[in-house]
Amino acid sequence: MTFKTIISATTIGLSAICALEANAINVESKEAGSLATLVANPDRETVLTVSGPINAADFQFINDRMPALTLIDLSNAKIEAYDGKVLATGAGVSDASVVPAYAFFGSNASTILLPADVTAIGRGAFGNSAITFLSIPATVERIESSAFVACKRMTGITIPASVTSIGDYAFKDCTALKQVTIAGAIPAIEASTFAGCSALEKIVIPESVTSIGDNAFSQCKSLQTINFPAVLERIGEKAFYESGLTDANLSASKSISAIGSYAFALNPALTTVALPDCAIEFGSGVFFDDATLSSIKLPAALTAIPSLMFKGNAALDNSDLLPAGITNIGDYALMGMTSAQEIKFPAALQSIGDGAMEDWTSLSTIYADELAQAPALGNDVWAGVDQSNVIMFVTDDAKSQFESADQWKEFIIKVSSTGIDEVTADEAAGLADVDFRFVGNHLVISSTGSPIVAVDIYDLSGRHRLGHRGEASPEVDIALNRLPQSAVVVVNAILANGAVASLKIAL
Protein backbone atom coordinates (compact mmCIF):
# COMPACT_ATOMS: atom_id res chain seq x y z
CA MET A 1 0.00 0.00 0.00
CA THR A 2 1.26 3.47 -0.88
CA PHE A 3 0.80 6.40 1.48
CA LYS A 4 1.20 10.12 1.07
CA THR A 5 1.25 13.07 3.44
CA ILE A 6 0.47 16.63 2.41
CA ILE A 7 1.38 19.54 4.73
CA SER A 8 0.55 23.21 4.15
CA ALA A 9 3.52 25.51 3.50
CA THR A 10 1.86 28.37 5.40
CA THR A 11 0.04 28.67 8.66
CA ILE A 12 -3.05 30.23 7.10
CA GLY A 13 -3.84 28.01 4.16
CA LEU A 14 -5.31 24.52 4.08
CA SER A 15 -3.26 21.99 5.96
CA ALA A 16 -3.66 18.25 5.82
CA ILE A 17 -2.46 15.63 8.20
CA CYS A 18 -3.20 12.34 6.61
CA ALA A 19 -1.96 8.91 5.75
CA LEU A 20 -4.08 7.77 2.88
CA GLU A 21 -4.36 5.13 0.26
CA ALA A 22 -3.19 6.26 -3.20
CA ASN A 23 -5.78 8.29 -5.18
CA ALA A 24 -7.56 9.32 -1.97
CA ILE A 25 -6.95 12.50 -0.05
CA ASN A 26 -8.11 13.85 3.30
CA VAL A 27 -7.68 17.56 3.94
CA GLU A 28 -8.39 19.74 6.94
CA SER A 29 -9.15 23.34 6.09
CA LYS A 30 -7.96 26.30 8.12
CA GLU A 31 -9.17 28.96 5.71
CA ALA A 32 -11.89 28.88 3.04
CA GLY A 33 -10.79 29.33 -0.56
CA SER A 34 -7.35 27.70 -0.36
CA LEU A 35 -8.01 24.09 -1.39
CA ALA A 36 -6.17 24.61 -4.68
CA THR A 37 -2.92 25.31 -2.83
CA LEU A 38 -2.87 21.90 -1.19
CA VAL A 39 -3.81 19.23 -3.68
CA ALA A 40 -0.76 18.51 -5.83
CA ASN A 41 -2.30 16.08 -8.32
CA PRO A 42 -6.00 16.92 -8.39
CA ASP A 43 -6.78 15.07 -11.60
CA ARG A 44 -5.70 11.72 -10.09
CA GLU A 45 -7.70 11.67 -6.88
CA THR A 46 -10.80 9.46 -6.70
CA VAL A 47 -11.86 10.06 -3.09
CA LEU A 48 -11.87 13.46 -1.38
CA THR A 49 -12.63 14.15 2.28
CA VAL A 50 -12.62 17.75 3.47
CA SER A 51 -13.15 19.18 6.94
CA GLY A 52 -13.13 22.80 8.04
CA PRO A 53 -14.21 25.99 6.21
CA ILE A 54 -14.71 26.05 2.41
CA ASN A 55 -16.40 28.42 -0.01
CA ALA A 56 -17.57 28.69 -3.62
CA ALA A 57 -13.99 28.93 -4.93
CA ASP A 58 -13.19 25.56 -3.36
CA PHE A 59 -16.29 24.00 -4.91
CA GLN A 60 -15.17 25.28 -8.31
CA PHE A 61 -11.71 23.81 -7.81
CA ILE A 62 -13.17 20.42 -6.86
CA ASN A 63 -15.49 20.34 -9.84
CA ASP A 64 -13.13 21.74 -12.46
CA ARG A 65 -9.79 20.26 -11.40
CA MET A 66 -10.72 16.89 -9.85
CA PRO A 67 -12.60 15.02 -12.60
CA ALA A 68 -11.74 11.52 -11.35
CA LEU A 69 -13.55 11.87 -8.03
CA THR A 70 -16.22 9.25 -7.35
CA LEU A 71 -16.82 10.08 -3.68
CA ILE A 72 -16.79 13.53 -2.09
CA ASP A 73 -17.23 13.72 1.67
CA LEU A 74 -17.95 17.21 2.97
CA SER A 75 -19.88 16.08 6.03
CA ASN A 76 -17.36 17.76 8.37
CA ALA A 77 -16.86 20.86 6.23
CA LYS A 78 -18.49 24.23 6.81
CA ILE A 79 -19.57 26.41 3.87
CA GLU A 80 -18.68 30.07 4.29
CA ALA A 81 -19.91 33.05 2.28
CA TYR A 82 -18.03 34.06 -0.86
CA ASP A 83 -17.72 37.58 -2.27
CA GLY A 84 -14.92 37.96 -4.77
CA LYS A 85 -13.81 37.20 -8.28
CA VAL A 86 -16.58 36.06 -10.60
CA LEU A 87 -16.25 32.31 -10.91
CA ALA A 88 -16.75 30.11 -13.93
CA THR A 89 -20.34 29.56 -12.81
CA GLY A 90 -20.99 33.27 -13.34
CA ALA A 91 -21.35 33.99 -9.64
CA GLY A 92 -19.21 36.41 -7.66
CA VAL A 93 -21.27 36.06 -4.50
CA SER A 94 -22.47 32.97 -2.63
CA ASP A 95 -24.14 32.76 0.78
CA ALA A 96 -22.89 30.84 3.77
CA SER A 97 -24.39 27.39 4.40
CA VAL A 98 -25.56 27.18 0.78
CA VAL A 99 -24.27 24.65 -1.74
CA PRO A 100 -23.20 27.14 -4.45
CA ALA A 101 -24.88 27.36 -7.82
CA TYR A 102 -23.58 24.69 -10.24
CA ALA A 103 -21.19 23.45 -7.55
CA PHE A 104 -21.18 19.86 -8.84
CA PHE A 105 -22.71 20.37 -12.27
CA GLY A 106 -21.50 17.55 -14.53
CA SER A 107 -19.54 15.89 -11.73
CA ASN A 108 -18.55 12.22 -12.13
CA ALA A 109 -18.90 11.59 -8.38
CA SER A 110 -21.60 9.04 -7.60
CA THR A 111 -21.77 9.81 -3.87
CA ILE A 112 -21.56 13.25 -2.29
CA LEU A 113 -21.95 13.87 1.46
CA LEU A 114 -22.99 17.40 2.39
CA PRO A 115 -22.20 19.46 5.50
CA ALA A 116 -24.71 18.93 8.30
CA ASP A 117 -25.70 22.61 8.53
CA VAL A 118 -26.53 23.31 4.88
CA THR A 119 -29.68 25.47 4.54
CA ALA A 120 -30.07 25.53 0.75
CA ILE A 121 -29.03 23.72 -2.41
CA GLY A 122 -28.20 26.26 -5.08
CA ARG A 123 -29.34 26.56 -8.66
CA GLY A 124 -28.10 23.68 -10.81
CA ALA A 125 -25.88 22.49 -7.96
CA PHE A 126 -25.97 18.79 -8.91
CA GLY A 127 -27.25 19.14 -12.46
CA ASN A 128 -26.13 16.57 -15.03
CA SER A 129 -24.01 14.82 -12.42
CA ALA A 130 -23.46 11.10 -11.85
CA ILE A 131 -24.81 11.00 -8.30
CA THR A 132 -26.76 7.88 -7.42
CA PHE A 133 -27.26 8.77 -3.77
CA LEU A 134 -27.62 12.01 -1.87
CA SER A 135 -28.77 12.50 1.71
CA ILE A 136 -30.26 15.97 2.05
CA PRO A 137 -29.56 17.31 5.56
CA ALA A 138 -32.58 18.07 7.76
CA THR A 139 -31.42 21.71 7.94
CA VAL A 140 -32.10 22.40 4.23
CA GLU A 141 -34.95 24.88 3.72
CA ARG A 142 -34.97 25.34 -0.03
CA ILE A 143 -33.93 23.51 -3.18
CA GLU A 144 -33.37 25.98 -5.98
CA SER A 145 -34.16 25.81 -9.69
CA SER A 146 -32.60 22.96 -11.69
CA ALA A 147 -30.74 21.73 -8.60
CA PHE A 148 -30.82 18.10 -9.77
CA VAL A 149 -31.68 18.51 -13.44
CA ALA A 150 -30.65 15.55 -15.63
CA CYS A 151 -29.20 13.45 -12.80
CA LYS A 152 -29.73 10.32 -14.87
CA ARG A 153 -28.39 7.80 -12.34
CA MET A 154 -30.34 8.87 -9.28
CA THR A 155 -33.12 6.38 -8.50
CA GLY A 156 -34.67 7.88 -5.37
CA ILE A 157 -34.66 10.98 -3.23
CA THR A 158 -36.10 11.93 0.16
CA ILE A 159 -36.77 15.61 0.72
CA PRO A 160 -36.84 16.36 4.46
CA ALA A 161 -39.62 18.17 6.30
CA SER A 162 -37.41 21.25 6.68
CA VAL A 163 -37.69 22.04 2.94
CA THR A 164 -40.34 24.70 2.28
CA SER A 165 -39.73 25.31 -1.44
CA ILE A 166 -38.50 23.34 -4.47
CA GLY A 167 -37.56 25.36 -7.53
CA ASP A 168 -38.70 24.82 -11.10
CA TYR A 169 -36.89 22.19 -13.18
CA ALA A 170 -35.41 20.83 -9.94
CA PHE A 171 -35.56 17.17 -11.01
CA LYS A 172 -36.27 17.54 -14.71
CA ASP A 173 -35.00 14.65 -16.88
CA CYS A 174 -33.90 12.48 -13.96
CA THR A 175 -34.76 9.50 -16.12
CA ALA A 176 -33.88 6.79 -13.54
CA LEU A 177 -35.75 8.44 -10.66
CA LYS A 178 -38.43 5.99 -9.45
CA GLN A 179 -39.52 7.27 -6.07
CA VAL A 180 -39.70 10.70 -4.45
CA THR A 181 -40.64 11.38 -0.85
CA ILE A 182 -41.54 14.94 0.09
CA ALA A 183 -41.81 14.95 3.88
CA GLY A 184 -42.71 18.57 4.51
CA ALA A 185 -45.21 21.25 3.50
CA ILE A 186 -44.47 23.08 0.27
CA PRO A 187 -46.87 25.51 -1.45
CA ALA A 188 -46.38 24.37 -5.03
CA ILE A 189 -44.95 21.87 -7.47
CA GLU A 190 -43.26 24.36 -9.76
CA ALA A 191 -42.97 24.30 -13.55
CA SER A 192 -41.21 21.24 -15.00
CA THR A 193 -40.11 20.06 -11.54
CA PHE A 194 -40.40 16.38 -12.53
CA ALA A 195 -40.76 16.73 -16.30
CA GLY A 196 -39.14 13.90 -18.22
CA CYS A 197 -38.81 11.64 -15.15
CA SER A 198 -39.89 8.69 -17.27
CA ALA A 199 -39.24 6.06 -14.56
CA LEU A 200 -41.09 7.89 -11.77
CA GLU A 201 -43.62 5.51 -10.21
CA LYS A 202 -44.40 6.93 -6.79
CA ILE A 203 -44.75 10.41 -5.37
CA VAL A 204 -47.22 11.83 -2.87
CA ILE A 205 -48.02 15.50 -3.35
CA PRO A 206 -48.12 17.25 0.05
CA GLU A 207 -51.58 18.37 1.11
CA SER A 208 -50.22 21.94 1.35
CA VAL A 209 -49.79 22.25 -2.43
CA THR A 210 -52.12 24.78 -4.06
CA SER A 211 -50.53 24.82 -7.51
CA ILE A 212 -49.09 22.25 -9.92
CA GLY A 213 -47.05 24.16 -12.48
CA ASP A 214 -46.73 23.96 -16.24
CA ASN A 215 -45.16 20.66 -17.39
CA ALA A 216 -44.66 19.64 -13.74
CA PHE A 217 -45.11 15.92 -14.47
CA SER A 218 -45.02 15.91 -18.27
CA GLN A 219 -43.64 12.70 -19.81
CA CYS A 220 -43.74 10.86 -16.47
CA LYS A 221 -44.70 7.75 -18.40
CA SER A 222 -44.48 5.34 -15.45
CA LEU A 223 -46.63 7.46 -13.12
CA GLN A 224 -50.01 5.69 -12.98
CA THR A 225 -51.62 7.31 -9.95
CA ILE A 226 -51.20 10.53 -8.03
CA ASN A 227 -53.10 12.35 -5.30
CA PHE A 228 -54.59 15.80 -5.79
CA PRO A 229 -54.66 17.87 -2.57
CA ALA A 230 -57.94 19.28 -1.28
CA VAL A 231 -56.48 22.84 -1.31
CA LEU A 232 -55.32 22.60 -4.93
CA GLU A 233 -56.29 25.71 -6.92
CA ARG A 234 -54.49 25.40 -10.24
CA ILE A 235 -53.06 22.81 -12.62
CA GLY A 236 -50.77 24.34 -15.24
CA GLU A 237 -50.42 23.77 -18.97
CA LYS A 238 -49.19 20.29 -19.92
CA ALA A 239 -48.83 19.44 -16.22
CA PHE A 240 -49.43 15.72 -16.91
CA TYR A 241 -48.79 15.75 -20.67
CA GLU A 242 -47.82 12.28 -21.95
CA SER A 243 -47.97 10.81 -18.44
CA GLY A 244 -48.93 7.25 -17.51
CA LEU A 245 -51.95 8.19 -15.37
CA THR A 246 -54.80 5.69 -15.42
CA ASP A 247 -57.17 7.91 -13.44
CA ALA A 248 -57.33 11.49 -12.21
CA ASN A 249 -59.50 11.93 -9.15
CA LEU A 250 -59.85 15.63 -8.40
CA SER A 251 -63.22 15.31 -6.69
CA ALA A 252 -61.79 16.44 -3.33
CA SER A 253 -60.08 19.51 -4.84
CA LYS A 254 -63.07 21.80 -4.46
CA SER A 255 -60.98 24.99 -4.64
CA ILE A 256 -59.60 24.31 -8.10
CA SER A 257 -60.37 27.13 -10.51
CA ALA A 258 -58.11 26.52 -13.52
CA ILE A 259 -56.77 23.57 -15.51
CA GLY A 260 -54.34 24.67 -18.22
CA SER A 261 -54.16 23.73 -21.88
CA TYR A 262 -53.21 20.11 -22.62
CA ALA A 263 -52.87 19.42 -18.87
CA PHE A 264 -53.83 15.75 -19.29
CA ALA A 265 -53.25 15.39 -23.04
CA LEU A 266 -51.80 12.28 -24.67
CA ASN A 267 -52.32 10.06 -21.62
CA PRO A 268 -52.64 6.65 -23.35
CA ALA A 269 -53.94 4.79 -20.26
CA LEU A 270 -56.23 7.43 -18.71
CA THR A 271 -59.74 5.97 -18.35
CA THR A 272 -61.46 7.92 -15.57
CA VAL A 273 -61.54 11.57 -14.55
CA ALA A 274 -63.48 12.82 -11.52
CA LEU A 275 -63.93 16.58 -11.22
CA PRO A 276 -65.46 18.63 -8.40
CA ASP A 277 -68.67 20.44 -9.22
CA CYS A 278 -67.22 23.95 -9.07
CA ALA A 279 -66.41 26.69 -11.56
CA ILE A 280 -63.27 25.64 -13.45
CA GLU A 281 -61.62 27.46 -16.34
CA PHE A 282 -60.31 24.88 -18.80
CA GLY A 283 -57.64 25.60 -21.39
CA SER A 284 -57.72 24.12 -24.87
CA GLY A 285 -56.98 20.42 -25.42
CA VAL A 286 -57.05 19.46 -21.73
CA PHE A 287 -57.87 15.81 -22.59
CA PHE A 288 -56.50 15.87 -26.15
CA ASP A 289 -56.03 12.39 -27.66
CA ASP A 290 -56.78 10.48 -24.45
CA ALA A 291 -57.98 7.51 -26.47
CA THR A 292 -59.04 5.34 -23.49
CA LEU A 293 -60.90 8.00 -21.50
CA SER A 294 -64.42 6.64 -20.98
CA SER A 295 -65.73 8.29 -17.81
CA ILE A 296 -65.95 12.00 -17.00
CA LYS A 297 -68.59 14.41 -15.72
CA LEU A 298 -68.03 18.09 -16.34
CA PRO A 299 -68.92 20.74 -13.73
CA ALA A 300 -72.47 22.10 -13.98
CA ALA A 301 -71.14 25.68 -14.00
CA LEU A 302 -69.17 25.17 -17.22
CA THR A 303 -70.36 27.43 -20.05
CA ALA A 304 -68.03 26.48 -22.92
CA ILE A 305 -66.13 23.45 -24.22
CA PRO A 306 -62.72 24.83 -25.29
CA SER A 307 -61.13 23.92 -28.61
CA LEU A 308 -59.66 20.40 -28.88
CA MET A 309 -60.75 19.56 -25.32
CA PHE A 310 -61.84 15.99 -26.08
CA LYS A 311 -60.29 15.58 -29.51
CA GLY A 312 -59.40 11.95 -30.19
CA ASN A 313 -61.28 10.52 -27.17
CA ALA A 314 -62.28 7.40 -29.07
CA ALA A 315 -63.67 5.53 -26.04
CA LEU A 316 -65.87 8.33 -24.70
CA ASP A 317 -69.61 7.64 -25.16
CA ASN A 318 -71.63 9.94 -22.92
CA SER A 319 -74.82 11.41 -24.31
CA ASP A 320 -75.05 13.77 -21.29
CA LEU A 321 -71.47 15.05 -21.67
CA LEU A 322 -72.53 18.68 -22.12
CA PRO A 323 -73.71 20.52 -18.97
CA ALA A 324 -76.92 22.54 -19.19
CA GLY A 325 -75.14 25.90 -19.31
CA ILE A 326 -72.92 25.22 -22.34
CA THR A 327 -73.24 28.04 -24.89
CA ASN A 328 -70.32 27.20 -27.17
CA ILE A 329 -68.46 24.09 -28.36
CA GLY A 330 -65.01 25.13 -29.60
CA ASP A 331 -63.16 24.17 -32.77
CA TYR A 332 -62.45 20.42 -32.95
CA ALA A 333 -63.50 20.14 -29.28
CA LEU A 334 -65.19 16.72 -29.66
CA MET A 335 -63.50 15.55 -32.85
CA GLY A 336 -62.82 11.83 -33.16
CA MET A 337 -65.20 10.55 -30.47
CA THR A 338 -65.77 7.47 -32.59
CA SER A 339 -67.65 5.47 -29.90
CA ALA A 340 -70.27 8.14 -29.21
CA GLN A 341 -73.71 7.05 -30.39
CA GLU A 342 -75.82 9.89 -29.02
CA ILE A 343 -75.44 13.52 -27.97
CA LYS A 344 -77.84 15.83 -26.18
CA PHE A 345 -77.50 19.55 -26.91
CA PRO A 346 -78.46 21.81 -23.96
CA ALA A 347 -80.94 24.66 -24.38
CA ALA A 348 -78.20 27.29 -23.87
CA LEU A 349 -76.10 26.16 -26.87
CA GLN A 350 -75.49 29.00 -29.35
CA SER A 351 -72.58 27.89 -31.53
CA ILE A 352 -70.48 24.90 -32.56
CA GLY A 353 -66.97 25.45 -33.95
CA ASP A 354 -65.06 24.07 -36.94
CA GLY A 355 -64.89 20.28 -37.08
CA ALA A 356 -66.17 20.06 -33.52
CA MET A 357 -67.89 16.69 -34.08
CA GLU A 358 -65.86 15.42 -36.97
CA ASP A 359 -65.52 11.63 -37.32
CA TRP A 360 -68.36 10.67 -34.97
CA THR A 361 -68.67 7.49 -36.98
CA SER A 362 -71.02 5.73 -34.50
CA LEU A 363 -73.46 8.63 -34.17
CA SER A 364 -77.09 7.57 -34.53
CA THR A 365 -79.15 10.09 -32.55
CA ILE A 366 -78.99 13.78 -31.71
CA TYR A 367 -81.34 15.27 -29.11
CA ALA A 368 -81.76 18.91 -30.07
CA ASP A 369 -85.28 19.20 -28.68
CA GLU A 370 -84.29 21.69 -25.98
CA LEU A 371 -83.06 24.19 -28.57
CA ALA A 372 -85.33 27.07 -29.51
CA GLN A 373 -83.30 27.68 -32.67
CA ALA A 374 -80.47 26.13 -34.65
CA PRO A 375 -77.01 27.07 -33.23
CA ALA A 376 -74.51 28.75 -35.53
CA LEU A 377 -72.03 26.33 -37.08
CA GLY A 378 -68.39 26.55 -38.11
CA ASN A 379 -66.91 24.72 -41.07
CA ASP A 380 -67.30 20.96 -41.54
CA VAL A 381 -68.76 20.39 -38.08
CA TRP A 382 -69.79 16.81 -38.91
CA ALA A 383 -67.16 15.87 -41.47
CA GLY A 384 -66.92 12.09 -41.73
CA VAL A 385 -70.40 11.54 -40.24
CA ASP A 386 -73.07 9.77 -42.31
CA GLN A 387 -75.74 12.34 -41.51
CA SER A 388 -78.33 10.63 -43.71
CA ASN A 389 -78.51 7.83 -41.13
CA VAL A 390 -78.63 10.02 -38.03
CA ILE A 391 -81.96 10.95 -36.42
CA MET A 392 -82.16 14.39 -34.85
CA PHE A 393 -85.06 15.21 -32.58
CA VAL A 394 -86.17 18.86 -32.50
CA THR A 395 -89.21 20.83 -31.35
CA ASP A 396 -92.07 21.47 -33.72
CA ASP A 397 -91.37 25.23 -33.57
CA ALA A 398 -87.71 24.84 -34.55
CA LYS A 399 -88.16 22.09 -37.16
CA SER A 400 -88.42 24.35 -40.21
CA GLN A 401 -85.34 26.32 -39.20
CA PHE A 402 -83.21 23.16 -38.85
CA GLU A 403 -84.54 21.84 -42.18
CA SER A 404 -83.36 24.97 -43.99
CA ALA A 405 -80.00 25.45 -42.25
CA ASP A 406 -76.77 24.31 -43.90
CA GLN A 407 -75.20 21.23 -42.25
CA TRP A 408 -78.25 20.77 -39.99
CA LYS A 409 -80.59 19.89 -42.83
CA GLU A 410 -78.55 16.80 -43.73
CA PHE A 411 -79.88 14.88 -40.73
CA ILE A 412 -83.14 12.92 -40.48
CA ILE A 413 -85.08 15.61 -38.63
CA LYS A 414 -88.01 14.53 -36.47
CA VAL A 415 -90.22 16.32 -34.00
CA SER A 416 -89.78 14.95 -30.50
CA SER A 417 -93.00 13.19 -29.51
CA THR A 418 -94.44 13.45 -26.02
CA GLY A 419 -94.87 9.69 -25.79
CA ILE A 420 -97.47 10.17 -23.01
CA ASP A 421 -100.29 10.66 -25.48
CA GLU A 422 -99.33 7.47 -27.29
CA VAL A 423 -99.50 5.49 -24.07
CA THR A 424 -102.90 6.91 -23.22
CA ALA A 425 -104.33 6.10 -26.65
CA ASP A 426 -102.82 2.70 -27.30
CA GLU A 427 -101.73 1.09 -24.06
CA ALA A 428 -104.39 -1.63 -24.30
CA ALA A 429 -103.62 -2.60 -27.87
CA GLY A 430 -101.68 -5.80 -28.44
CA LEU A 431 -100.44 -6.20 -24.86
CA ALA A 432 -101.42 -9.84 -24.66
CA ASP A 433 -98.92 -10.74 -27.39
CA VAL A 434 -95.95 -8.76 -26.02
CA ASP A 435 -93.59 -9.68 -23.20
CA PHE A 436 -91.15 -7.32 -21.48
CA ARG A 437 -88.24 -8.75 -19.44
CA PHE A 438 -84.91 -7.59 -18.07
CA VAL A 439 -81.61 -9.33 -18.80
CA GLY A 440 -78.93 -7.48 -16.84
CA ASN A 441 -79.12 -3.84 -17.95
CA HIS A 442 -80.93 -4.78 -21.17
CA LEU A 443 -84.68 -4.72 -21.79
CA VAL A 444 -85.76 -7.57 -24.05
CA ILE A 445 -89.15 -7.18 -25.76
CA SER A 446 -90.73 -10.23 -27.41
CA SER A 447 -93.90 -10.42 -29.51
CA THR A 448 -95.62 -13.73 -30.24
CA GLY A 449 -98.06 -12.05 -32.58
CA SER A 450 -97.31 -9.19 -34.94
CA PRO A 451 -93.53 -8.48 -35.13
CA ILE A 452 -91.94 -5.40 -33.58
CA VAL A 453 -90.98 -2.64 -36.02
CA ALA A 454 -89.82 0.08 -33.58
CA VAL A 455 -89.25 0.87 -29.92
CA ASP A 456 -89.33 4.36 -28.36
CA ILE A 457 -88.44 5.23 -24.76
CA TYR A 458 -89.59 8.52 -23.19
CA ASP A 459 -89.02 10.11 -19.82
CA LEU A 460 -92.00 11.39 -17.84
CA SER A 461 -91.56 14.91 -19.20
CA GLY A 462 -92.24 13.45 -22.65
CA ARG A 463 -88.71 13.71 -24.03
CA HIS A 464 -87.60 10.95 -26.37
CA ARG A 465 -84.58 9.36 -24.68
CA LEU A 466 -83.83 6.21 -26.66
CA GLY A 467 -85.08 4.52 -29.79
CA HIS A 468 -84.73 1.50 -32.01
CA ARG A 469 -85.55 1.18 -35.71
CA GLY A 470 -84.91 -1.80 -37.95
CA GLU A 471 -86.50 -4.65 -39.82
CA ALA A 472 -89.61 -6.18 -38.25
CA SER A 473 -88.52 -8.73 -35.65
CA PRO A 474 -90.23 -10.93 -33.04
CA GLU A 475 -87.67 -9.80 -30.42
CA VAL A 476 -85.76 -6.58 -29.73
CA ASP A 477 -82.90 -6.11 -27.23
CA ILE A 478 -82.45 -2.55 -25.89
CA ALA A 479 -79.40 -1.54 -23.77
CA LEU A 480 -80.51 0.81 -20.98
CA ASN A 481 -77.05 1.83 -19.74
CA ARG A 482 -77.27 5.26 -21.41
CA LEU A 483 -80.43 6.19 -19.50
CA PRO A 484 -80.12 8.12 -16.20
CA GLN A 485 -80.12 5.99 -13.07
CA SER A 486 -83.29 6.09 -10.96
CA ALA A 487 -85.28 7.52 -13.88
CA VAL A 488 -88.84 6.49 -14.64
CA VAL A 489 -89.47 5.95 -18.34
CA VAL A 490 -92.23 4.80 -20.67
CA VAL A 491 -91.41 2.15 -23.26
CA ASN A 492 -93.52 1.92 -26.43
CA ALA A 493 -93.14 -1.17 -28.62
CA ILE A 494 -94.71 -0.49 -32.02
CA LEU A 495 -95.94 -3.57 -33.86
CA ALA A 496 -96.26 -4.15 -37.58
CA ASN A 497 -100.06 -4.25 -37.28
CA GLY A 498 -100.10 -0.74 -35.86
CA ALA A 499 -100.64 -1.72 -32.23
CA VAL A 500 -98.52 -0.19 -29.49
CA ALA A 501 -97.56 -2.13 -26.35
CA SER A 502 -96.48 0.12 -23.49
CA LEU A 503 -94.70 -0.30 -20.17
CA LYS A 504 -93.72 2.16 -17.46
CA ILE A 505 -90.48 1.15 -15.70
CA ALA A 506 -88.26 2.58 -12.95
CA LEU A 507 -84.54 2.16 -13.61
Task: Tell me about this structure.
With 507 residues, this protein is mainly beta. Among the domains are: 303-416, Leucine-rich repeat, LRR (right-handed beta-alpha superhelix) (Alpha-Beta Horseshoe), CATH 3.80.10; 420-506, Immunoglobulin-like (Sandwich). 5% of the residues lie in helices and 28% in strands. The strands form 11 sheets. A 5-stranded parallel β-sheet has the order 15-17-18-20-22, with no helix packed on it. Strands 3-4-5-9 form a 4-stranded parallel β-sheet, with helices on one face. Strands 8-10-11-13 form a 4-stranded parallel β-sheet, with no helix packed on it. Strand 34 and strand 35 form a beta hairpin. Residues 1-22 and 418-430 have low confidence and may be disordered.
Q: Layout of SSEs?
A:
Blueprint: E1 3-4, E2 20-21, E3 24-28, E4 47-54, H1 56-65, E5 71-79, E6 82-83, E7 93-94, E8 98-99, E9 111-113, E10 120-121, E11 142-143, E12 156-159, E13 165-166, E14 179-182, E15 188-189, E16 202-203, E17 211-212, E18 234-235, E19 247-249, E20 258-259, E21 272-274, E22 281-282, E23 295-296, E24 304-305, E25 328-329, E26 342-344, E27 351-352, E28 365-367, E29 376-377, E30 391-394, H2 399-404, E31 412-415, H3 420-426, E32 434-439, E33 442-447, E34 452-459, E35 464-473, E36 475-479, E37 488-495, E38 500-506
Parallel strand pairs: 3-4, 4-5, 5-9, 8-10, 10-11, 11-13, 12-14, 14-16, 15-17, 17-18, 18-20, 19-21, 20-22, 21-23, 24-25, 25-27, 26-28, 27-29, 28-30, 30-31
Antiparallel strand pairs: 1-2, 6-7, 32-33, 33-36, 34-35, 34-37, 37-38
